[in-house]
Amino acid sequence: MTTWSQFTAQAPSISALFLRRHRATGNLCMLATLRADGSPRISPIEPMIFEDMLVLAGMPGTRKFDDLARDPRFCLHTATIDTNVSEGDAKLFGTVTDLKDESVHARFAEKLFQDSGLDIRSEKFDHFYIADLTGASTVEVEDDHLDITIWKPGRPESVVRKH
Predict the structure, then answer these.
(1) Nearest 5°: phi and psi at 117?
(2) For labeling, which of 87, 109, 124, 132 is most exposed (least CB within 10 Å)?
(3) Radius of gyration of the chain from Cα atoms?
(4) 29 φ, ψ to 5°?
(5) 48-106 pLDDT per residue, tens
């Protein structure tokens, strides 16, 4: 499993752009999953980095979590309304694991309460998905070209420049 710190060490520019865009949208991202019939589903989500894990948690009983229970593959895309992508955008690819450790759930709920006031400390998590990243990419628009940065675990970032 690729931890968040391993990802940031191996892909510093991609992780920095992801975090910058993540914060700029109030933590909103778009999550791509696969429906039972194999067609794609796009859903809003507010992922969190917690204890060196990228956590994909949210409201229980939502279809996106049913999708992940059936097929753990996902793509997480930073939200944007800028058609020129002037601030760049990032995509993270991977699979999820449903972490059953209730002590982690309790610490996560406490942090969420401290950070946002949302109190789910007494609730039991249906799912607590943590991401194992299998790839990532960013797009950044420069004056006369487009830079696409790509990462795979165990490899350094590489940049493809399009003119």
Answers:
(1) 85, -5
(2) 124
(3) 16
(4) -135, 170
(5) 999 999 999 888 889 999 999 999 999 999 988 888 888 899 999 999 999 999 999 99
Q: Look at residue 143 and tell me whether its pLDDT is greater than 90.
A: no
Whether residue 113 contacts residue 99, with contact meaning beta carbons closer than 8 Å, is answered with no
Give residue limits of the domains in the chain: 4-162
Tokens 């607590």 belong to 128
CATH number 2.30.110.10 given to 4-162: yes
State the CB neighbour count (10 A cutoff) for residue 59. 10
Q: For tokens 């401290």, what's the residue?
A: 114
Cα–Cα distance for residue pair 54/75, rounded to 1 Å:
13
Give the global pTM. Answer: 0.93
Task: Specify the 3-state DSSP secondary structure of 133.
Answer: strand
Encoding tokens for residue 89?
Answer: 């955008």
Q: Calculate mean pLDDT across residues 37-48.
A: 96
What is the DSSP code (8-state) at residue 120? -
Helices (H) and strands (E) in the chain, counts: 4, 9
Average pLDDT over residues 17-42: 95
Determine which helix (DSSP H) or strand (DSSP E) holds 64, and give its type and residue range. helix 63-70
With residue 134 as reference, give the H or E element that holds it: strand 129-141
